[in-house]
Amino acid sequence: MFPVGAFLSRSNFFKLMTLFRFSPWVVAGVTGFIFPSVIAQSPQALNPLVVEAASDEKQSLTVPGLAASRADLEKTPGGVEVVDPERYLSGRASTVADVFALSAGVFAQPRFGSDEARLSIRGSGLQRTFHGRGIRVLQDGVPLNLADGGFDFQAIDPLAASHIQVWRGANALAYGSSALGGAIDYLSHTGLSAPGGSARLEAGSFGYLRARLAGGFSEGSQDLYLSLSQQSQEGFRRHAEQNNQRLFANYGWKFADHIETRVYLSSVVTDSELPGNLTKAELELDPRQAAPANITGDQKRDFELFRVASKTTVAVGDKRFDLLAAWTYKDLDHPIFQVLDQKSNDALLGGIFTEDGELFGRGQRLRAGLLLMRGETDAANYQNVGGGRGNLLQADEQTASNLEAFVEEQLELGAGFTGVLGVVASRNDRETQRVFGSTPANSSYDRSYDDLAPKLGLRWEKADVQLYGNVSGSYEPPSFSESGTAVVANSAQEATTVELGSRGRRGAFRWDASIYRSELTDELLTIQLPAPAAIGATGTINADRTIHQGVELAGEVDLLGAAWDDDPARRVVFRSAWTWGDYRFDGDEMYGNNRIAGLPRHLVRGELMWENDGGWYAGPTFEWVPVESWIDHRNTFSADAYALLGFKFGRRVEEGVSWFIEAKNLLDERYAATTGVIENADGKDQRQFLPGDGRGVFAGIECRW
Asked: How far from 630 is each of 125, 218, 603, 678, CA to CA, in Å?
């Protein structure tokens, strides 16, 4: 069923009524701020919308363009990036690995060739191979994370983004994130930035099919953008079928030259079978097979998500105020070892003030904001009877609330230097009440967390070169999936990070390089429980001290020698991104200085591409993990190193027909794309390996008019 059908037929009237029951202050925010256009609109019908080309006079106040985003991020004294969709639309644009293939510092690997993935920045969420944590994910500056910090990959669609902003680590402070991994913001197409229509179809191996239809329209002070997509696959592995539909829409109304409101609507219906983990021996014998328990238990992760959000921008001179609001409903049906049934309502209100002006006669930029989030979840666990629901085992009522205030000041110091000073102050509450089932210790709890995460940075720039450094703090309370342990009450994870780096261009070279070291306390990891727990018992609790450090290097060079300011008829470009991450325990009583399991120390991706001014391109792609990676914190068993080779060619044009053909894993390598994480493998093969896809060929065609 297409998203529109799902939106009309799947009890969304009840979901809207739940919003009004959920919280009066959300209702006030929605009616008073999200829909000023609706409130002010007369009952007369709108004039028909017509397609108009975007002009300099018709730019959205709520959604910055690609050039504006680059200029804004370059003011950050730390690792940041703007991802232009033209980079990943030249091939298959399905998984997070496709999108962030050339993003240094972003470890993105699909679990089984689909949306379910492992996404980590600077070792964030090391424990998680599912349902992301440790990164703030946003849409046009409005957080998509649920109130407990978790996020779903299916709630975003890279095809609906005009571009993507990435802040690695504490560099996202000016956008309200204090998480170790930073933030990723998906900036939307609008009826102003993408007038006209587009249709895209991708198909290929393993029954893969993805279709997307989109259109942008504007009339006077109003604009509308719609994106409808359908994706399905049989999957490289057995029991890996996926089917999802997504609707993303936004409507903007500039009801004065300096005031604009944009309303967002998202509807997602996604069904995913889970093939599970294999042993290394099983992977080498037949990587297509599924884990037996996943077959007998028909393990899946299906959910529906409905979201309404708003952003109102008031821009007067060098001052700007953004008012944010959002409400998200999610219904999860998740048969695994038990059937998890979760229905959640999450709401957000916030305001951000930005001023670009002068202070003490010097250029300055002040950015400050306040975010209030609250989420309520009804969580129930049932017996898994062949994927269906058996007896109810337990039921909890969970509430998460967050109050976050942040401020960052940038001040020009002279001689090319700019100083940066900022802080995030957070108050987070997590409450779980057991309403059915056994009540072991800590099955019901009410915990509060408070923290200040500061940042001090310095940026120097001359011509097209920047040097930067910063010292910053990060802070992250546990999500519900980690705070419910019956053994130890979880503390919040904290870190102090030192970072140095450079970005710029010289002639035919462009680069972005960062080196960092984070010292963490209370990192959330599955480790052996302290006494008086049973010997060998493990659980997700707080490690004492750990270290995350690494290098992030992305660059490109035109081997024909043309400068990036030139416009030659052809280029031969080598692009690559290298991520080195060293994650360790720090003098731990149990683990010493062992490496923390979960991610490889090195990940290198790149391409060598011939390109011409007619939009044609062709060349090989590669992915290389040159070292083994541990699956356990005792460092007794590991995944093997691997290297993958691909090739793509095609043509992309601004209007008319674009197309591509892409081959992946040409040598049909058998490898683990990622692994599970356990405390001790005892040197023995364990069912913790997630095979990457075998050889595949994909093709796509896109028409824009």
From this structure: 16, 53, 14, 10
Q: What is the CATH number of the domain that holds 394?
A: 2.40.170.20
Please give the residue range of the domain that contains residue 480. Answer: 3-704
Distance CA 294, CA 690 (A): 13
Compute the distance between CA of residue 475 and CA of residue 512 in angstroms, rounded to an integer. Answer: 26
* Cα R_g (the chain), whole angstroms: 25
| Pick from 184, 306, 181: nearest CA to 248 | 306
Paired strand residues for 329:
306, 345
Tokens describing residue 497: 């990070």
94: helix, strand or coil: coil
From the list 583, 3, 604, 594, the residue with the least C-alpha distance to 248 is: 3
104-163 per-position pLDDT tens digit: 999 998 888 777 788 999 999 887 777 788 999 999 999 999 999 988 877 888 899 999
Among residues 307, 412, 425, which one has the least CA distance to residue 361?
412
Q: 64: cis peptide before it, omega within 30°? A: no
Q: Which two tokens stand for residue 554?
A: 């992305």
Angle formed at CA 566 by CA 562 and CA 568, multiple of 5 degrees: 65
Q: Which of 497, 453, 491 is nearest to 475 (CA)?
A: 453
595 has a pLDDT exceeding 50 = yes
Give the pLDDT score at 17: 35
Tell me how far CA of residue 493 lies from CA of 252, 265, 545, 668, 699, in angstroms: 39, 33, 10, 40, 44
Q: Smallest Cα–Cα separation from 246: which of 216, 212, 272?
A: 212
Cα dihedral across residues 91, 158, 113, 136: positive or negative:
positive
Q: Which of 12-16, 220-224, 276-280 shows the lowest mean pLDDT across its residues?
A: 12-16
Please give the helix or strand (H or E) that residue 186 lies within, else none.
strand 182-188
Length of the chain counted residue by residue: 705
Return d(Cα 556, Cα 564) in angstroms, integer: 10
366-376: b (≥16 Cβ within 10 Å) or e: bbbbbbbbbbb
Residue 586: both structure tokens together: 């720090």
**Separation between Cα atoms, residue 190 and residue 313, nearest integer Å:** 15
Token code pair at residue 517:
């070291």
Tokens of 447: 């915990």
Is residue 674 within 8 Å of 109, Cβ to Cβ? yes
Which DSSP category does 386 fall into?
A: T
| Residue 589 to residue 640: CA distance in whole angstroms | 28
CB atoms closer than 10 angstroms to residue 560: 13
Which pLDDT tens digit goes with each residue over 57-113?
A: 478 999 999 999 999 999 999 999 999 999 999 999 988 889 999 999 999 988 887
Q: pLDDT tens across 258-300, in order?
A: 999 999 999 999 999 999 999 999 999 999 999 999 999 999 9
Give the integer Cα–Cα distance in Å for 37 and 547: 50
Look up residue 477 and give its amino acid. P
Nearest in space to 564 (alpha carbons), one of 620, 511, 609, 615: 511
Place of tokens 């904290």: 494
Task: Give me 91's structure tokens.
Answer: 């091939």
Query: Which runs of E-coded beta strand occur in 529-569?
Result: 538-542, 545-558
* Dist. CA 584–CA 595, nearest whole Å: 4
What pLDDT digit, counting tens, does each position of 338-381 carry?
Answer: 999 999 999 999 999 999 998 888 999 999 999 999 999 999 99
* 199 and 230 Cβ atoms separated by less than 8 Å: no
Beta-carbon contacts of residue 195 (< 8 Å; ≥ 6 apart): 51, 52, 53, 54, 216, 217, 218
> How many folded domains does the chain comprise?
1
